[in-house]
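Trying the structure run again after the queue cleared.
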Amino acid sequence: MKGFLVVIEKVGGNYSTYSPGLPGCVATGETQEETERNMRAAILFHIEGLIEDNLPIPNSTSSAQNVAVP
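Done. Tokens:
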């Protein structure tokens, strides 16, 4: 099992998400929960495509941190 960082952003009335470790892998949804579910499905689909094309599945090297500023 691999883990990938995903970034979820509220855009207008919907949510959008992407994974820095999987360029081009994105998803959207009306709620954050729906967007997370859609992103899981998108990641699985993306990885299946990589396997079918005999391409390596990347290791996630991304991390995230909130930075407080005064």
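Residues 15 and 33 are 9 Å apart (CA to CA). Worth checking whether this holds up in the mutant runs.
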